[in-house]
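User: I'm curious whether this sequence folds into something compact or stays loose and floppy. Could you predict its structure so I can see for myself?
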Amino acid sequence: MSNPVKNALSALTVKLLWRDWRGGELNVLIAALLVAVTTVTGIGLFSDRIRNSILDEASSLLAADAQISGSQAIETRWVEQAKAANLETASITSFQAMAFGNEGKIQLASVKAVSNEYPLKGVLEVSDVPYGPVTIVSKGPLAGQAWVNSRVMAALGVELGDVIGVGDADLTVANVLVKEPDSQSGGLGFAPRVLINETDVGATGAVQVGSRVSYRLLLAGDVEPFKTQWLPEKGEHHRWRDVKDANDSITETLERAESFLLLAGALGVVLGGVALALASKRYALRQLGHVALLKTLGLTPKNIATLYAGNLVILGVIVVALGLFSGWFLHWAFLEVFSGLFPRELEPATARPLLIGVLTGFVCLFAFAFPPVWMLRNTPPSRVLRSDMAGGTLSQARTMVLGAVAVVGLVYFYSKSLSITAAVVIAGAVAVIGVSFLARGMIYIAKRIASRLGTTWRLGLASLQRHSSQNSFQIVIFSLSLMLLFILTLLRTSLLTQWQDQLPEGTPNHFAFNIFEEDRGGLEDIFARNDIASTPFYPMIRGRLTEVNDELMADRIERLNPDGDDFRRELNNTWGDTLAPDNEVVEGEWFDAEDAQRNLVSIEQDYAASLEIVIGDELVFSFGGQDVVVTVDNIRTVQWDSLSPNFYVIFSSPILGGAGAANLTSFYLTPEQKPVLVEILQAHPTITVIEVDAIIEQIQGIVGQVTRAIEFILSLVLVAGLIVLIASVQATLDSRLKESAILRTIGARAKLIRGALAIEFVALGALAGILAVAGAEVTLYFLQTELLKIEYQASYWLWLIGPISGGLLIGLVGMVSTRKVVSVPPMTVLRQL
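Assistant: Here's the prediction. I'll summarize afterward.
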């Protein structure tokens, strides 16, 4: 092609693009592409920021992005390698030691010695008086200082400025320790806490050969490359922990939130693609006459293809750029308006959402808009004289196949999850295949009913039948859009309900153990006087599983290689005939009254599966050197995140007759009831109390942040769904204008036409609502049970709400989008025929 021809085509491309823009031909196409890019970019930016913020917030549970922990000292070369990888480091040494206070008072304490860099993530909370106002600080104690929690203050009878003994060291009490970011990370957190500087460890004399000591190296930064380098060197005494290992509740919340955000983003891609498909088809149909005219003036099919491809490229660059900006602005505006609802400032997003927005825009543009435009080159010149001449159009089936392939590819690229991609494909298959057949049947039924109704009803329902092919496709689009909205709405409700059920109001936030029978009555009296609710008292004795079916545990562990350390340590065991509410027997039957005289056990499901233990197996437990032989009677699941006392193993009868057992319970304290802990510890100094209220507060804060993310993303997808509905109605606007013009020419009033349109759209919406509910229920079952791992709950009320909301929503959108049908003069429309 010569340069003059190229220049002429380039100039013509710009002129046609400008003409189509001014004439409104590109409005729907631009709006659809803009919505697709804006939705995907907005959701991507917000999801990315929320995800980064959740991970950053959750990392405070470790006081770092990751940590190496073990029972042996951290090797110096690991610290040097971490620093060489540009990671921040801090160290923690945890051990138990006796603390000495005023008037000869003593208390066994959990001592945590930290380096000057601690914490790398999160903050410390301290106070001047026990249970007093909190001050936030970013670093730990200096050398020679001790920060002690309120329980230590009460037990030792000391105040700020007093000197306490920690082992052989004398340290000054500088702060009351209220909260550490990683308070649950250590294995020695059961005793009252004393926080000291690591330079004072030697002076305590508490860390000797044979002492029970825990060492941790904290890491912050891009830890994944270092993890890959370190894992082959770790040995059996150290293990890696990151955010997802920090807490089971946080891990489950993050996994479910990430799945939901990815699913929402994937559905945003689908909605954007559907809107663009509808708009591009209308655009191509309206170009047929122009292309025929250009061919009569001498343009070749190759010239036509080049001309419109250039239009798409120019249009794509401009609209995608606007979509990126509007997506960023949308997520920024939301954050500004609702900034007070988020716990803290969100972390910045990465560049990935912007790249996905660009990719989505151009893939959707060329997958949906390019094929119909490419077919324009086959338009016969004779269409200038006869508009009903065939040619120049792409079949609806081919358009849908091309679009489906593009959408599936984008969804997988966006989510990186085969499960999410499969869920979207299943939902689409239900909507497109099943719904297309059912839609025709429902339209036929609606026609039969119309014969018994008035003129307006007959006209509206007759329109359904007259455009049965077109309306069937519209019902598919409407039902797909409604189905996606129903799925996201119900998933949001299911997730929030599940999270709230994990930590409901009044969840126990303190554990008390080492409660012997002589202390139990006094503790129950304190609970009763202060109106404190507690869980039942569970007898507890520590023991080790030593044999399974005559196979030593060491041999079985070596053979099966189960994950975790729970199989090599002593377990807390209990007995009783009452099944806790958060336990459920999944194999066998729970103990009955006669079992109290037999040696039977109930085993937690995951523990049993890891060791390949089944009902009827014979186990041997060792308690202080005394063996107890038992038979597995049932297997049960345990809700570990309920923060209630739970056990891997429950016996049917008292272990060793109950000798040497202590009791365990949990209870809930409000902030105003905190001083009761002082009363408990002073009256019963041998009882150990664990405070987990700070952990619960952290978990609830993260769940709250996830909730805001879900609500925002749901609102974005709802807007995208409405745009799809508008695009679908706009795609049929030309034919409706012609029909309206003919009816008004033969005397039909505007009121009659508006009524018929209203009936048609409400009927379409109601039919789409019924089909959307069916597809949503099928898809929700898969998503809830397989992807999000939550219990499926059928939404029976949706069968009523779905058709009603579908009729009202689509009726409203249809009437607003087709208001031109009765406002444009009939003569204007007829002249264009």
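Summary: Residues 185-190 have pLDDT under 50 and may be disordered. The first helix runs from residue 3 to 23.
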